[in-house]
Amino acid sequence: MTIIDPTMQDLLSAINSFKDELREDISSIKRDTEATRNDVAALTSTVQQNTAAYRALSADMAYLKHAMALARPTAELIINGIPAQCGLAHQDILIRVLTHLRLPGFHNDFISINKIDLKPNGSSRDTTRQYFALKVLCKSVEIRNAIIEAKRGLGTITVLELFPELSINGFNANKIYVNEFLPSSTYALLKKAKTAAKNAGYKRVWARNGNIFVRKVALRSYLSPLNRT
């Protein structure tokens, strides 16, 4: 028979009690760790979802911004068909066009003028068939539209009428065009619309403020130019 000292008995009891408490603490820590792991997993999933949603929203915002930029009317026009031999300054060419359109009060209503080199007709060595265009940024859409409507109301402008000093044989009868400057995507759509309209029997297709219009008859109505003197 083993006799245990009461002091040792108390010590063993204390140790066993401590072991039980330690086991409970370890179990509690395991439960807390598992809960924390689940919380971290849920948080990670939420972050990933929010990140994906943010990226999708950013893409939508970028697309919307691009679409709004395309839809927003610009104040640009293009003067096309200018002979390469024309040595006038860009501003002087614009002033000559405006004067011919009887819009002298518009001479200072533009912000910038940029030259656009165009592919020559025929042989690239034939300088009499080379021409360029000017892209003009007007101070407002209304001014741009008034200039274009004045050109449409006047009708055809030939190279000889605008640049009589050049007197280029075979080029004098060529036309000078004044139109709204369109983004490449809108211009491509305009060309497709003209083809489709022609096949469908429509007589007129035109662009205004970035929008494309189709009319069954060829009748045109013009807006009066802004009253500038």
Automatic annotation (TrEMBL):
Pfam assignment, any one: Baculo_FP_2nd
| InterPro entries per record | FP_C (IPR057251)
Record-annotated FP protein C-terminal domain positions? 186-216
Name of the featured protein: FP protein C-terminal domain-containing protein
Organism of provenance: Trachymyrmex septentrionalis
Q: What is the lineage of its organism?
A: Eukaryota, Metazoa, Ecdysozoa, Arthropoda, Hexapoda
